[in-house]
Amino acid sequence: MREASTNLVYEFVKNDARVMALTADGRNGVYERIRAEFPAQYMDYGIAEANMVSSAAGLAAGGMIPFLFGTTNFIAMRAFEFIRNDVAIPNYNVKFLGIFSGLSRGGWGATHQGTEEVALLRCLPNLVVITPATPIEAREATRFAYEHDGPVYIRLEASGEPEYLPENYMFAVGKGQEIRAGHDVTLITMGAILDAAIQAAEEAKQRGLSVRVLNMPTLKPIDAKLIKSAAKETKGVLTMEEHAVEGGLGSAVAEVLAEAGIATRFCRLGLHGCATGCGNRDEIRALNHISKEDVMRRIWNMMEQ
Q1: Residue 34: what are its φ and ψ, rounded to 5°?
Q2: What predicted TM-score, i.e. pTM, was given to this entire model?
Q3: How many angstroms separate the CA atoms of 134 and 194, rounded?
Q4: Phi first, then psi: what are they for 24, rounded to 5°?
Q5: φ and ψ at residue 52, rounded to 5 degrees
Q6: Mean pLDDT by 10 residues, the chain (305 residues)
Q7: Residue range 1-155 in CATH 3.30.930.10
Q8: What are the record keywords, sorted (predicted)?
């Protein structure tokens, strides 16, 4: 995801002198290339994310289009007050690329596991919050961010995620996608955990269950129509996310169902507070009960009810 997104930022920098590549001691190979080839459009603020955000607001006020690249916890949570006051409320044209979101840096511990920022950011005015599930979606979300006049936050998780979207996919705010059809249970996912949902749906098929899989890249606005139709057409809804269920996808889907008055079996699969333990992504998912096996257990429990 990171390469798909930042490669497009490189193209923007090359073709539009208004685009700035900003980082806070977190650049990748693409941002290094921008630094070398377009030094006038690159700035590194060191470990001073709040300063970077405020500076980006000033650049945007002057007509520039800054793309900020940094670790999720530091760019979104350490600098939250500055995002709120300096960017979101005045509606400045600042773009945030939050890296190492979810459990992609599980071995680095809670300080680098970005698992709460969607809950924080989705309540802010004007700010569009996007959680891509695949590299193509990350690329097209970045294209949307460049074309959109206003602040955008893109939650980039890891690298090398499998692709489930077509090359001609067009990102649209407030629109989810049905990745897999099914009539027994609906799995709604946010981010790269889509892969585990698809694996679980395939395993469920081998056991005689038909599982629908929906990808939900934005929570505000959320695709309420897609959620409501799935809840009516299947026997239960289960949400999956590498994020706290409080304020994340699970909460957003619950809000849609409650406000629509739809009674259905419903389960939120995600984190309750910060993640437990350290390890690679699969190990952390297992420790926190959001692995493919946990999904299968929840599906069977839901069907038994």
Answers
A1: -60, -45
A2: 0.92
A3: 9
A4: -130, 75
A5: -60, -45
A6: 91 97 85 94 93 97 96 89 97 94 68 82 96 96 97 86 91 95 96 92 92 95 96 95 92 96 93 78 80 85 79
A7: no
A8: Thiamine pyrophosphate, Transferase
